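Ticket reopened. Same input as before:
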Amino acid sequence: MKSNINNNYFESDKLNHECGVLGIYDLDGEDVSSSIYYGLYGLQHRGQEGCGIAVSDTNGPLGNIKSHKGMGLMSEVFTEESLDDLCGNIGVGHVRYASGRNKTIENVQPLVIHYAKGTLCLGLNGTLLNHKELKHELAYTGAIFQTSIDTEIIAYVIARERLKAKSIEEAVKNTMKKIVGAYSIVMMSPRKLIGIRDPYGVHPLVIGKRDNTYIIASETSALDAIGAEIIRDVEPGEIVSIDKDGIHSDRSLVQEKKARCIFEYIYFARADSKIDDVSVYNSRIMAGKLLAKSHPVDADLVIGVPDSGKAAAVGYAQESGIPYGTAFIKNSYVGRTFIKPKQSMRETSVRIKLNVLKEMVEGKRIVMIDDSIVRGTTSGIIVKALKDAGATEVHVRISSPPFLHPCYYGTDVPSGDQLIAHNNSIEEIRQIIGADSLGYLAIEDLSAIIDGQTGYCDACFTGNYPIEQTKDMK
Amino acid sequence: MKSNINNNYFESDKLNHECGVLGIYDLDGEDVSSSIYYGLYGLQHRGQEGCGIAVSDTNGPLGNIKSHKGMGLMSEVFTEESLDDLCGNIGVGHVRYASGRNKTIENVQPLVIHYAKGTLCLGLNGTLLNHKELKHELAYTGAIFQTSIDTEIIAYVIARERLKAKSIEEAVKNTMKKIVGAYSIVMMSPRKLIGIRDPYGVHPLVIGKRDNTYIIASETSALDAIGAEIIRDVEPGEIVSIDKDGIHSDRSLVQEKKARCIFEYIYFARADSKIDDVSVYNSRIMAGKLLAKSHPVDADLVIGVPDSGKAAAVGYAQESGIPYGTAFIKNSYVGRTFIKPKQSMRETSVRIKLNVLKEMVEGKRIVMIDDSIVRGTTSGIIVKALKDAGATEVHVRISSPPFLHPCYYGTDVPSGDQLIAHNNSIEEIRQIIGADSLGYLAIEDLSAIIDGQTGYCDACFTGNYPIEQTKDMK
Amino acid sequence: MKSNINNNYFESDKLNHECGVLGIYDLDGEDVSSSIYYGLYGLQHRGQEGCGIAVSDTNGPLGNIKSHKGMGLMSEVFTEESLDDLCGNIGVGHVRYASGRNKTIENVQPLVIHYAKGTLCLGLNGTLLNHKELKHELAYTGAIFQTSIDTEIIAYVIARERLKAKSIEEAVKNTMKKIVGAYSIVMMSPRKLIGIRDPYGVHPLVIGKRDNTYIIASETSALDAIGAEIIRDVEPGEIVSIDKDGIHSDRSLVQEKKARCIFEYIYFARADSKIDDVSVYNSRIMAGKLLAKSHPVDADLVIGVPDSGKAAAVGYAQESGIPYGTAFIKNSYVGRTFIKPKQSMRETSVRIKLNVLKEMVEGKRIVMIDDSIVRGTTSGIIVKALKDAGATEVHVRISSPPFLHPCYYGTDVPSGDQLIAHNNSIEEIRQIIGADSLGYLAIEDLSAIIDGQTGYCDACFTGNYPIEQTKDMK
Amino acid sequence: MKSNINNNYFESDKLNHECGVLGIYDLDGEDVSSSIYYGLYGLQHRGQEGCGIAVSDTNGPLGNIKSHKGMGLMSEVFTEESLDDLCGNIGVGHVRYASGRNKTIENVQPLVIHYAKGTLCLGLNGTLLNHKELKHELAYTGAIFQTSIDTEIIAYVIARERLKAKSIEEAVKNTMKKIVGAYSIVMMSPRKLIGIRDPYGVHPLVIGKRDNTYIIASETSALDAIGAEIIRDVEPGEIVSIDKDGIHSDRSLVQEKKARCIFEYIYFARADSKIDDVSVYNSRIMAGKLLAKSHPVDADLVIGVPDSGKAAAVGYAQESGIPYGTAFIKNSYVGRTFIKPKQSMRETSVRIKLNVLKEMVEGKRIVMIDDSIVRGTTSGIIVKALKDAGATEVHVRISSPPFLHPCYYGTDVPSGDQLIAHNNSIEEIRQIIGADSLGYLAIEDLSAIIDGQTGYCDACFTGNYPIEQTKDMK
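Engineering reply: fixed in the latest deploy. New output:
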């Protein structure tokens, strides 16, 4: 058992989303760039390190794509001026999470390419499992690479398949037969908006509509931001193509086996989104209820760690009858450019970001709900803050099972030895974080949080990886 | 009755805080600039349009003040580099709200002046009622003005009084006898940190301590951000002076009559602050409870409009027994640089900032708690959004009485004819905002929300202005 | 005859250089990024719209290239911080001129690519004549393009040739057999710095050395900036490769026929550069002397239009015996971000940039030397300014023949109908610009300005295009 | 004798100008901000560290002044947007040189103040000799200071005098009786543009006109930039006031004794300016001629160190008969943001900024003219560069006498012990800089360079300070 509570943990103890995609096509020919702009605000929680918009005019000259991209948040990258320069009635937007040496402007999406049959513009949420193999094959048949993103590999395969295919849709289908991985992609060709979702449907993708404008987006929160209605989710394995005649669908790659990421419901997605017909909010409420059943405790107050723990806390309260309350004030001004305290300082980032409401917790036995524990450090700081504020007991309940295995499908669940649950028993974790009791959601309860549906991926908890292994991974 | 629901109302239908002040003096001689930086994050809700820090060294040469100021948020104005340049063990920080033509860099505080007896550095939260009279008198005895802030007037009076006084404290006291208004001020002379609060105590000011470091701040949220303990509030009319020997106090201007702003509790202050020994959070819970008693309704769910309506909603739920829930998802990425939708657009700022959780409200009778209605427009948009999401009834409860009169004491409650309650009956307001019922907190209940204390200002609701009129106001 | 003197002409009536390239390899393993930085300052006159530096470590892991690029001048793109991030003992730098829709960040060089055999980093000065044909062929064998620069095409061809070749040098040679055009390229592979010049040698390229550090650069001005010695020019058609063992050369593509751009001497290159063993300054002095012989005039003062007309003016003065003087003060603060006067304004950009020294010209007969007249407008403004200042006569002498034909080799000599000399006789031009006489350098005199050498390109004056036509051009 | 040649000397071995001022009043009511903008470009050589513009409308409400100021060059501080915000038909502009701790935004001018009688806006070129005394007196009668510039002191005195005076002009005159120093000031009251020049006329100030628009500026180069005609210089001691009825003048403070800075002609002013009816360019030509007479030498080429040494070089050449030539190429891209080489580097700032034209100097005996030697370092680097390039002899001629005494009148001639000529004989200086001979202009020749006029200040050469000493200086 090894304690690793430190000052900076709050930053690093949440998983990061892995990109959001958005495509809009206005059949009436109106400009879509500002709708993409507002829609991306509805996806910003999926990626804060880069963003971009590319638009074109379906009635204009071929290949005339205007784009603007940059490192940082939407509010940092786009100005009224840069937005005004982007005119066109079809477009793709992207928000990006990136790590390490991939944090360069070259890697910001959407990726715009010119090829034999015109132009393509792609935004990807996901990751390929056979990218090394594909890259090797492409390189040895004369490809050069200017980025380190899988989007470029996919663009290459599509471009090459397009040389042999009758249509862009056929090229996309043939590409899907070659690439292995978890991917939701929105792309535009000069006259079409296309959305695809890998056959396992790991990441979400949904279709919306507002008047005569079609939208394909990672989450329904993007549709709500622009006042569009949900039509339906893109089916795992489906190719959706929107042209001037409306929506077309190719379901020939749809397969039985699905592996939709269960952690989208637990943490990644916005609480007001609906994924594959299940409300994210309801799934969190249910997780809280199930926790209350499996890990009941005698207490005075149920609280949630902002923001994602709050809905589960409401569920726990409803089931247990223990009152729900708000015990934290989150400082919304602490952002990307916040200067972090040095180790020697008395101030901690956590304390500045998240202050405890003493009045709420003083003298009380607290049930504190969080969505997950990754490395295990912030939890300890928060438990201590609650006790400092006068809580007599702090019972921690986690609305997901313990993380034991890395994720290869486009989220950043780290490798096993960085996961606190991989190295410690639950009792040890309890001691490390200083809780009076600790309970996790049971693996058996996962299905219940999504209305009893099956076909989800729980590999990070169980190690049962649904997608076949590739040479890359061996 | 005139409806004035429009697209931009959400921005303009909340009052703006009127500055936050913070002073720190480390008697052990350690650097205070980063503590001021983190502390100002704890006050950022009091002003987002400008901020600054000025520091000095109590053991260094006289008058050697380093300062950095700018327009915008802390995160926009300060970089690691600009913070590193500010070395000193005594300093003053300020966050500023400003309107109209006062939005210029000259007006950003703290104000640093050089005068016959050295230097002074001041940060003000508040406003003078006799500023015209004072300015006239100063000008006709040879003063020139480089800003349009009252801080400059106060600095002038102090500087002139100091010529006749034995100490800076005496000069400050004589100044307080001349200035009329609502003011909380933190200032530093080369060797002293001084905090004053007008005799009515309109705005808050609190003293804190961490080891051998003293802090004077607008709210306790600044103390929490830097891990300091509350010592006590500065008493209305008190002059607190901190030098190398510790705290000194002059209470000779303390008077019977107080007029502490009740709206700090209802909306301005951060929920986790404590003002004059009353928890802001508790006062909001109590307001909700009182509303439940005075305006009960048969309903399925109590919700609060983020962020300030939430605590009152919890109180309403507790009292009424109707379940509390979260019905809104707030988009925390929509900030100062958000490009607002044009009127012609379908998207509204409100919708992008605040999305309704359909699952929570569908088919339900809702009690929606908000802290106030100023001009009356956002409320209508939110009520409509709830009904669009399937709420069968929306009962609006406001945790303050109707605004009927302007505020002259440093907040921006507008003049009567812009206040919806000034022009419309409660029934008319209900119709304008489309609510099924509407209830306000009763004026008689105000005292109860602050533990039955008296000596508060409720002029914006009652028109009973506590501070004597000045020539300026006639 | 059509006059087209207007206010903005000064900006547009000079040709623009077409990029500068620079590569440095320090065999001792020391960092080269700051030397590239200073060297690019010595090439900034060749391109002001974008610049970049990419470096690598010949002893480090393969493919680990760090780069920083941006739109604008060196002083705008590079900061101490961005420069410090670039560590490595081998690197390539580029300054770029770009026009129209190519002005995007994607097109800024050097271009960094990853391919089957590792990485390549290229900077190009020049243009391909068969780029359409090559692009078509590449695209139909599976290439995708992310930029609109010829550098990307060249990189593709090299990458594909490399798959079949034994060495990068062989791949480069095979590439040179396929590409047609005017190009000087500096590139780096993980362990080698390579410089090539097209077989016609249209654009300059020179090798330098400082201690154990090798430099390949567009002009010797880059060598001077970093204190390096000239070794020799890269020969037209030569492939120079520098590795840890020093310089290697492959001259197998060297051909008899050369076509070195004569306008580099007249205007493009910096006066202190030496190209193919001929001093640019001396060539300009000679052009002035030849003008004095072919177009003598009785006058009081010879002046040069800054900056490129000055050396020729000195030559004219030396030959004619008429005193040389400075008649203009150039405002060096007027740069890229200068806000241009609106048409309605009395101020002109020319007047603000270039003021006439009245004392020098008053009452005098002036010989004014300029390097060229492209569209013909600025000349008229300057002649008028001289007359306004009291010049009694202004005799204009141009140190090049009239522009009659567009350039296809990488400079921006416009198409014929925009060239004043294409549409007007010399007498008509004289009238348009308001000169008392006008004389151009004779085509026959061009050889004399480069020491009687032959093998230069004068197509813009004569229409004799030296490089074979490609399908693209038909 | 102590050598102090170092790498950074070039930056520090030129004196800095001390601000430029500009005021414009368009009697026809047209906007003047863009004319001030272009005019300030014509004064940018007088100050590069800060600039600002303030404008008002003589027909608008009193006291409504719009201003924009910032640190840096005009091109860095002003954008099209910031310029568009400045509307008004009367305005003042300023470019500033500043050093040390005065480099703060507070100190950037013009200074805008509000006082009993309205508003004033001032720009100052110069310095007060009794500023301490005045500041003390002001402070002890109740003044507070927010800047460290003398402009604020002057504004205070004017504001206070104005309380007793019948007009702003009378207040200004009474102020001039109190302040001692060297000052040229342009100021605007709500309805008047006023220019004053101290009775010694140390710094220049000139009146211009264009149609119905009046201009008061530091130099005629500002008038040329905007196409205005020179009317006349402001007389030393004169108060020029421009209102809707035209120019008014008060010469009652005009005195016999003048002390116009002779170094304006030698170096500070732009060569195309005319100061007090003497052409700066002609004065430099004359200085060169006089040097040729007093310090003749047998040589092959006369060159000038850019930019200010060039005119004197032309004069030397004319007088001596030795040919004039250009031996340096100045890199105009090296600006404020240039990252200076570290000491350890082989590159020097001088080499990158100023390259020697080898062809011009090789094998030649050179006469190199510079305007001054302050600390003495750059000269040595340049002489060495010439010799490295093959010059057989380098004879240095300085177009001013040796600096021996500090300047107290607003330029930055340093104190004696930093002046190379203060510590070394001319022969020693020659050795330090490595010249073959060295000659300075004789003090007796100074009058001749300004057409034999007297009434100039040569204190930095002679120690004869023309303005009476103040208490401050004792």
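Residues 150-164 of chain C form the longest helix (15 residues). Residues 282-332+348-449 of chain C form a domain with the Rossmann fold fold (CATH 3.40.50.2020). Please confirm and we'll close it.
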